[in-house]
Structure to design on (623 residues):
């Protein structure tokens, strides 16, 4: 959709102005237009109603940082702002939109915080500066500790308003890293904005392969804390755990079915790893895919009907796709001597994996039938591995390694924009992006 | 991608919008999300639908040296050589067979002994695949020991994949050392 409104659309424009929530916004960002114009947006200072003025601190920064993480917006610097937002702007006084337009802002965000006891009320509004209309407004209540997640929610509203696709602010990435002097690996979680890094396990053994449940409440992972590997489900909020895969030797969860009923995992028996699925409740086990080769890393499709997985049945590890319960599979990795760690995109249209090419690992994506391969993340001096899609499918998180240095990086799925999410921890790996919030 | 807005329509829209924002700002607008305010403890449907499982104690946060035996992350000293493997392979090669012969001799002389065979990999490739490959290596050694007459009951395997490198280097010399089966008397 183009951001052009001709005279013929005038009547429509008028009609929209009469309704509180337009069916779609007048300002619109086409996320499928590479290199499209970015939306110039101003995030004004936040007004504090009754309450400590320091409550507002950080809100414009969190919001601006979120918006800057997309390639959708140009932020008009606060030094250029021409109007001080006051409480009156929340009770009928219009912003001076021509002024905001003059400094280049096509959209303006204002916010107000009120403290009521230990609860906060946060109101956020997004205006179209050209039309002077409210595009979206929300009032949230919560505790001071929830300010960050509230702001992320409104950032998601802003992205949704402009693109029709919900943003991924407030989502998190689980991963593994060596911890301190122990040679063990622990699970960690970090916000997609790189904030709120925290350690999830602390048992000084190997804790590996974190995978999110579809509701984002649980992590499946393999721990060696008893000396032998067991797959556990861990409640991310409470830390409660339960064993979910005990049989077999080596084992690694690959992903949940979209309904959360099954956990797919690669499990070795008699030295040979096959793909199984285990009922999260009850523990019933079904073999999904096997054979003489090593089969690992099952990634269920978003509709739950297929899995992508790794098998070395052809002589080297490659990616295959099969329909669950139907014999036969299709190899989808081509041209790589070694291809592992498939990750299905949320829309189901692409599968990412790590491929060894010219002695280095790169992250590629292909269509589920193996056609249309595209390189996404490459490095001339290191390896790019372990891709995992964001819930909106617009980005991937992956591991970058070069000798002793390792980092988690986030790259747009077209490979155009990249940033470092986590560095400075030892031997990071196995990033898994949480579902949408 | 240019935006063209007919001037008079823009003026009309602006004036209507201005009227709206003055006249019905309250009605127009802000939706309260109080009821859905995010909460860390929000009751979202979880895949585990039975009663919440009792928290399993996470292993005590004590230094590995204090834990009984040797921590899983520590390299356990072995009187036997490692069996080494080629990249992405699990065949027991000639020198590995010699080592296995020594191990088999020891186990048959000491029928009470229990041997754990650890499978390890070099750092290249994904952790999951290497975890399975380490298991296949350990099992290949176990199978060979059984073929030499060692009772299977005396043997067990565990794979550490690429998590426990013997040599932390990033070159072929280190990788060759790390692709191994390691013997630990239990």
């Amino acid at each position: 959709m183009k951001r052009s409104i001709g005279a013929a659309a005038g009547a429509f424009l008028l009609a929209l102005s009469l309704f509180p929530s337009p069916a779609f916004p007048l300002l619109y960002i086409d996320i499928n237009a590479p290199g499209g114009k970015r939306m110039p947006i101003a995030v004004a200072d936040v007004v504090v109603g009754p309450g400590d003025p320091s409550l507002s601190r950080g809100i414009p920064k969190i919001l601006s940082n979120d918006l800057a993480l997309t390639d959708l917006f140009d932020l008009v610097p606060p030094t250029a702002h021409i109007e001080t937002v006051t409480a009156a702007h929340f009770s009928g006084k219009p912003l001076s939109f021509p002024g905001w337009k003059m400094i280049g802002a096509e959209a303006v965000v204002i916010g107000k915080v009120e403290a009521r006891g230990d609860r906060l009320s946060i109101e956020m509004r997004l205006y179209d500066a050209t039309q002077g209309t409210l595009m979206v407004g929300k009032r949230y209540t919560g505790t001071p500790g929830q300010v960050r997640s509230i702001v992320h929610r409104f950032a998601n509203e802003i992205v949704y308003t402009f693109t029709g696709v919900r943003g991924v602010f407030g989502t998190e990435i689980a991963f593994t890293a060596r911890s301190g002097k122990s040679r063990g690996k622990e699970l960690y979680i970090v916000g997609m904005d790189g904030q709120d890094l925290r350690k999830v396990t602390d048992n000084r053994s190997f804790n590996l392969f974190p995978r999110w449940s579809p509701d984002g409440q649980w992590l499946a992972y393999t721990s060696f804390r008893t000396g032998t590997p067991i797959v556990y489900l861990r409640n991310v909020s409470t830390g409660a755990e339960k064993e979910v895969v005990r049989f077999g030797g080596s084992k690694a969860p690959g992903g949940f079915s979209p309904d959360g009923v099954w956990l797919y995992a690669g499990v070795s028996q008699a030295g040979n790893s096959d793909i199984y699925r285990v009922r999260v409740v009850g523990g019933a086990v079904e073999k999904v895919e096997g054979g003489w080769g090593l089969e690992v890393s099952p990634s269920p499709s978003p509709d739950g009907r297929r899995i992508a997985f790794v098998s070395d049945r052809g002589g080297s590890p490659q990616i295959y796709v099969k329909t669950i319960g139907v014999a036969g599979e299709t190899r989808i990795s081509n041209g790589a001597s070694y291809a592992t760690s498939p990750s299905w995109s949320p829309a189901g249209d692409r599968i990412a994996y790590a491929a060894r090419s010219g002695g280095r690992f790169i992250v590629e994506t292909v269509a589920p039938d193996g056609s249309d391969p595209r390189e996404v993340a490459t490095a001339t001096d290191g390896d790019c591995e372990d891709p995992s899609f964001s819930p909106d499918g617009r980005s991937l998180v992956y591991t970058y390694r070069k000798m002793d240095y390792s980092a988690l990086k986030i790259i747009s799925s077209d490979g155009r924009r990249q940033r470092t999410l986590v560095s400075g921890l030892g031997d990071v790996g196995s990033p898994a992006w949480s579902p949408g919030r | 991608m240019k935006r063209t807005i007919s001037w008079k329509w823009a003026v009309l829209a602006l004036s209507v919008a201005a009227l709206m924002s003055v006249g019905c700002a309250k009605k127009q607008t802000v939706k309260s999300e109080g009821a859905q305010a995010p909460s860390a403890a929000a009751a979202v449907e979880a895949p585990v639908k039975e009663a919440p499982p009792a928290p399993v104690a996470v292993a005590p946060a004590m230094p590995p040296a204090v834990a009984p035996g040797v921590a899983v992350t520590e390299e356990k000293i072995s009187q036997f050589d490692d069996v080494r493997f080629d990249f992405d392979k699990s065949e027991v090669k000639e020198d590995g067979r010699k080592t296995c012969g020594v191990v088999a001799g020891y186990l048959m002389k000491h029928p009470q002994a229990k041997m754990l065979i650890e499978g390890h990999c070099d750092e290249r490739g994904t952790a999951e695949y290497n975890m399975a490959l380490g298991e296949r290596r350990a099992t290949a050694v176990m199978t060979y020991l059984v073929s030499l007459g060692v009772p299977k009951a005396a043997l067990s395997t565990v794979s550490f994949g690429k998590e426990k490198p013997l040599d932390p280097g990033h070159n072929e010399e280190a990788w060759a050392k790390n692709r191994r089966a390691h013997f630990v008397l239990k």
Remarks:
- Chain B touches chain A through 81 residues (CB under 8 Å).
- The longest helix of chain B spans residues 127-147.
- The longest strand of chain B covers residues 155-161.
